[in-house]
Design goal:
By secondary structure, the chain is an alpha+beta fold. The protein has one domain. The protein contains five helices and nine strands; from the N terminus they run βαββαααββββαββ. Helix 1 packs parallel to helix 2 and helix 3 packs across helix 4.
Length: about 240
């Protein structure tokens, strides 16, 4: 964790923050935050063969089709939250713990618990998303507008038109912690389960943080290793 004075970069540039990374265990507690309550959870989101393109949309759609619960109440604006996910993949394949996969999973799960507030441009947005995921535009429109599980909020635009496609804008700037566990399974398809948690500062962290701009992120990744063992790889950072 980045503690103590800000570290000067090797380049000598005048920067406002510094990062320090270290390996952690999947069972470790978060250093600066603690869970306050469960906002939402889901199990068995079927990702099919989970091709490497359009993975954010695949995750968003799979969670909407899955058994998801969001007991509420809705998280207030600018309140911190965490995303904890378990990705099960076919045992005949491997799941590389790369940043692109983690970002798609976290962003897709975060987007699934928002709703799109602006109805004016929704038909064209739904048409483009439907083309990306192979679903009917009417069904996509209903999913985007459905706010029953939108515990992370209803922004004016969860996504917007960009070029010939769309740009997703989930409120992941307040996602202060995340965990992704990758586990080999006997099934021949990929599935995702997880939960969204509201966070509160740990008392000792609240006393030691220097400003409200502090944030921490924990990403824990389990990847396939030799002889079907799992290697835990983690990183944690604190922004001062």
């Amino acid at each position: 964790m980045a503690t103590g004075p800000r570290r000067d970069p090797p380049s000598g540039a005048d920067l406002a923050c510094s990062y320090l990374y270290r390996l952690i265990s999947p069972g470790s507690d978060l250093s600066y935050w603690r869970p306050a309550r469960t906002l939402a959870s889901f199990t068995g989101a079927n990702l099919g063969q989970f091709p490497s393109t359009r993975r954010l949309e695949q995750v968003w759609l799979a969670i909407h089709r899955a058994d998801a619960t969001a007991p509420g109440p809705r998280l207030p604006d600018a309140a911190p939250f965490a995303v904890f996910l378990t990705l099960q993949y076919p045992g005949t394949k491997t799941a590389a713990a790369d940043p692109e996969l983690v970002k798609a999973l976290i962003d897709g799960a975060t987007a699934a618990f928002h709703a799109h507030g602006d109805r004016a441009g929704l038909p064209e947005i739904a048409l483009r998303v439907a083309a990306n995921v192979g679903e009917q535009p009417k069904a996509i429109t209903q999913m985007l507008a459905d706010d029953r599980n939108a515990v992370l909020g209803v922004p004016r635009r969860l996504l917007y038109l960009r070029g010939t496609g769309v740009q997703w804008m989930p409120g992941d700037h307040m996602c202060m912690a995340g965990q992704v566990l990758c586990e080999a399974a006997t099934a021949d398809t990929w599935t995702l389960s997880g939960e969204i948690l509201a966070l509160e500062p740990r008392p000792q962290a609240a006393r030691s943080r220097r400003s409200t701009s502090c944030r921490s992120l924990v990403v824990i990744l389990l990847v396939s290793a030799i002889s079907s063992c799992l290697l835990a790889v983690g990183s944690a950072w604190q922004l001062w």
